[in-house]
Specification:
This protein is α+β, with helices and mostly antiparallel strands. It has 13 helices and four strands. A four-stranded antiparallel β-sheet has the order 1-2-3-4, with no helix packed on it. Helix 2 packs antiparallel against helix 3, helix 3 packs across helix 4 and helix 3 packs across helix 6. The chain is flat.
Length: 322
Amino acid sequence: MGDSYCPECKRATEVVFDHSAGDTVCSECGLVLEAHSIDEKSEWRIFANESGDNDPVRVGGPSNPLLADGGLSTVISRPNGASGDFLSSSLGRWQNRGSNPDRSLIQAFKAIATMSDRKPDARIWYFRLGLVATIKDRANEIYKKVEDQKPLRGRNQDAILAACLYIACRQEDKARTVKEICSVANGATKKEIGRAKEYIVKQLEVEMGQSMEMGTIHAGDFLRRFCSHLGMNNQAVKAAQEAVQKSEELDIRRSPISIAAAVIYMITQLSDDKKLLKDVSLATGVAEGTIRNSYKDLYPHIARLIPSWYAKEEDLKNLCSP
């Protein structure tokens, strides 16, 4: 219900919208103020005898500019309750006869989406990548450019797709570690993904005629996610962020991921909720020995790194040396 001016009542009155007829009616005198209105909202009605798991959305997906037909071609699906010999029927045979030039691309895009949403093996990782749609679209675009330039037959397809996802994360400033990408890459190893990444970068640089910008990785890019995996409180996370920012001013020749892991371990040792080295290693994907060595490099600068509001000087002196 709402208010609208009624010419019969000569004043603003409450009106009622009749959805079945599309009429707007004055609630006092019954005058039809507007007839046969068009409802432009989405339609969610199911036109089927059984409800089941039918999707009430009666529209197709968005167009995809990376596909020749925009991804809007019609595909004959298997009817409900159809037997396994559907493809031997007339409709199935005509479906198979139609050549779709984008079939390999569609399969690759589906694989990228599956990797982005897959939950890795709990023995390796216990969280999803959490990649947004823009990263998936960028990975699709990278794969399309590489395939257009040179066929990818004979190469490890899973490694290629995982490398596209890794590069897309870097370019969108949402960096993920190679180990994170590897954990959802259908068995592709870090070495294979690394080689695939080098191959893709080389191909794209040849196409562009210039070096490819992938964005610089900073320890802070991984810090909040790592802290979240460990269940650290807000105060500890804030202290770790400040320590990581200050570490960039030092000449510590370690990877940003190793520095982030070492800072997290250092911060947790100064709190009541201390974390074991193996727990930090599991949450960050950095080997325990690497965290220990990075911790040794940061320890001489601990008074400069740790915020004074988080730990007092006596606490820093009591912190175990590496």
